[in-house]
Design brief:
The chain is mainly α. It has one domain. The two termini are about 25 Å apart.
Length: about 230
């Protein structure tokens, strides 16, 4: 899940589903909300499932840190090949979401959502090229959106970072273990982690096909960000 989540176009949540741990993973995340914690709710204690979540988080952390070296090297030494690789991964993710996860005729029903997602991603990719992500507020927003995407199958948090233009900055900070630089990003992730998982999952389950088709449009529209933001 760690290797997947740090690669744009590959969803860590999808990998969790392949290993049959997604349900347990979401249960732990949804238990962490302010109400359960402050009330010392029994559900919070029972859903923590430390024997499950602790090794999972450790494995993901090791994978993200190790992958940051590989990605930083590829950006520095083999940028064109890395861009081609990411673009292909993203196209494959779109095909998987629309043609394999669901029947094509069902996905076509939400073609407008696909086009809408594509145009949003394309517009963001083309307008945020010069944005300075040393800005703490922007990093908080990036962390918030990245974690929100992380818990959903079909889209990765790193894709959101790539689309916003903060992917390379975050990868470099992880590689250098620059905790100070990452603090605003971590704060944004924490806010999303505490308040949104239950609502996001409720909405996703109610509109799974529509949401995945929309995400597919976002992924396809984000390909220009690969070529514009990585340098």
């Amino acid at each position: 899940m760690g290797f997947a989540e740090i690669t744009p176009g590959i969803s860590g949540a999808t990998i969790a589903g392949l290993f049959n741990v997604y349900k347990d993973f979401v249960s732990v995340l949804t238990a962490f909300n302010p109400k359960n914690i402050l009330d010392k709710n029994e559900k919070f204690v029972s859903n923590l499932n430390l024997p499950f979540i602790f090794p999972l988080i450790c494995g993901m952390g090791i994978a993200v840190y190790a992958a940051s070296f590989a990605i930083d090297y590829l950006i520095s030494e083999h940028l064109f090949i890395f861009k081609v690789f990411l673009s292909l991964i993203m196209v494959i993710a779109v095909i998987k979401n629309c043609a394999f996860d669901h029947q094509i005729r069902d996905a076509i029903k939400f073609l407008r959502g696909f086009i809408f997602g594509f145009l949003i991603a394309l517009a963001i990719a083309l307008t945020l090229i010069e944005m300075n992500f040393n800005n703490s507020i922007l990093l908080i927003i990036a962390g918030f959106l990245a974690f929100s995407a992380f818990i959903l199958p079909g889209i990765s948090g790193s894709l959101v970072l790539l689309l916003l233009g903060s992917y390379q900055f975050v990868i470099s900070a992880i590689k250098m273990l620059d905790v100070i630089a990452l603090l605003p990003f971590i704060l944004g992730m924490t806010i999303s982690f505490l308040f949104l998982p239950a609502e996001i999952m409720k909405s996703f389950k109610a509109n799974e096909i529509r949401t995945k088709v929309f995400f597919s449009g976002l992924i396809l529209g984000s390909i220009p960000a690969v070529w514009l933001h990585l340098h």
